[in-house]
Predict the structure.
Amino acid sequence: MPKLKLHTFRRIYKSLKTPWTPINWLILGYLIGLEEQYIRIKTEHTVDKAIADYKASISTKVTKPKIVTKKTKDGWEMSIGQVDEK
C-alpha cells in the first residue's frame, strides 16, 4: 500500500478523505505524485543553494600569469611569470 512520506501531505490527505474508498485512492495517488515532485524540487533547491554558498565562501581569484617578451640579438625571447630584468 502506498504511503505518504511527509507529515504535511498526510494532514492534507486526512482533511480531504471521504467515506467513498475509490475517491480516497484517487486523492492519495494525486497527493503521492505531488509529494514526489515537491521533494525533488525542494532537494534540488537546497543542493543548488548549498553549492552557491560554498562557491561564494571560497575566495580564490584566478590570475593569469604575466607574459614578458623581449628582443634579443638572436630574436625574440618569451617568459611566463616573474622575469629578472637586466
